[in-house]
TrEMBL record:
<dbReference type="Pfam" id="PF14520">
    <property type="entry name" value="HHH_5"/>
</dbReference>
<feature type="domain" description="Helix-hairpin-helix DNA-binding motif class 1">
    <location>
        <begin position="108"/>
        <end position="127"/>
    </location>
</feature>
<dbReference type="GO" id="GO:0003677">
    <property type="term" value="F:DNA binding"/>
</dbReference>
<keyword id="KW-0963">Cytoplasm</keyword>
<dbReference type="GO" id="GO:0006281">
    <property type="term" value="P:DNA repair"/>
</dbReference>
<feature type="domain" description="Helix-hairpin-helix DNA-binding motif class 1">
    <location>
        <begin position="73"/>
        <end position="92"/>
    </location>
</feature>
<keyword id="KW-0227">DNA damage</keyword>
<keyword id="KW-0234">DNA repair</keyword>
<dbReference type="InterPro" id="IPR036267">
    <property type="entry name" value="RuvA_C_sf"/>
</dbReference>
<dbReference type="InterPro" id="IPR003583">
    <property type="entry name" value="Hlx-hairpin-Hlx_DNA-bd_motif"/>
</dbReference>
<dbReference type="Pfam" id="PF07499">
    <property type="entry name" value="RuvA_C"/>
</dbReference>
<protein>
    <submittedName>
        <fullName>Holliday junction branch migration protein RuvA</fullName>
    </submittedName>
</protein>
<dbReference type="GO" id="GO:0009379">
    <property type="term" value="C:Holliday junction helicase complex"/>
</dbReference>
<dbReference type="InterPro" id="IPR010994">
    <property type="entry name" value="RuvA_2-like"/>
</dbReference>
<dbReference type="Pfam" id="PF01330">
    <property type="entry name" value="RuvA_N"/>
</dbReference>
<dbReference type="GO" id="GO:0009378">
    <property type="term" value="F:four-way junction helicase activity"/>
</dbReference>
<dbReference type="InterPro" id="IPR012340">
    <property type="entry name" value="NA-bd_OB-fold"/>
</dbReference>
């Protein structure tokens, strides 16, 4: 597999670039954020790549950051999500926002992405929740973000609306160093009880 390409940006098109490496041009499908990064870079460019081989086709998909490539490989492992749909998702939502949407069962955020309907959103949440918990824990502030999602879910199961729960958790999370889910629930309940 080709892990990355580094060379001169020879040409660009609608969600693809050609990278010239020693006189050979490699056509790479890219996300919109990656396209913007590449066009803004002067001189040599580098993309982290993933190669998809089919009976009648070989495609290279390129990403500015290894984390984008990691999410791409996770997405194409979901039933019904192919490389083009995965690239569309990555063009429309950041890794962090996607992880938060999955962890908080937020179908609305996912269905705003063109090509993702309610069924696909449900499937993404169902199949990716555990993987996103692991990924979210590696993000800066991600562990507390994963715990915040669990705390919101717990408060909703106690009868609070999702909005009330999210507002309470977001209000207390900054004051707690390395909070556990229990810490967040406790502090949020105190805040919810004290409101007028």
């Amino acid at each position: 597999m080709i892990a990355h390409l580094s060379g001169e940006l020879a040409s660009t098109g609608d969600r693809w670039v050609v990278i010239d490496i020693g006189g050979v041009g490699y056509r790479v499908q890219v996300t919109e954020p990656t396209m913007q990064d590449l066009v803004a870079t002067e001189g040599r460019v580098m993309v982290h790549t993933y190669m998809v081989v089919r009976d009648d086709d070989i495609q290279l998909y390129g990403f500015s950051h290894p984390r984008e490539r990691e999410l791409f490989t996770i997405l194409i492992g979901v039933t019904g999500i192919g490389p083009q749909t995965a690239m569309n998702i990555l063009s429309r939502i950041s890794f962090e926002d996607f992880a938060i949407a999955i962890l908080s069962d937020d179908e609305k955020v996912l269905t705003r992405i063109p090509g993702i309907g309610p069924k696909s959103a449900k499937r993404l949440i169902l199949e990716l929740k555990d993987k996103m918990k692991k990924c979210a824990a590696t993000l800066p502030g991600g562990r507390s973000r994963a715990e915040a999602c669990d705390a919101v879910s717990a408060l909703v199961s106690l009868g609070f609306s999702e909005r009330e729960a999210e507002e309470a958790v977001n209000a207390v999370i900054a004051d707690l160093p390395a909070p556990t889910v229990q810490d967040l629930i406790r502090a949020s309940l105190t805040r919810l009880r004290e409101r007028p």
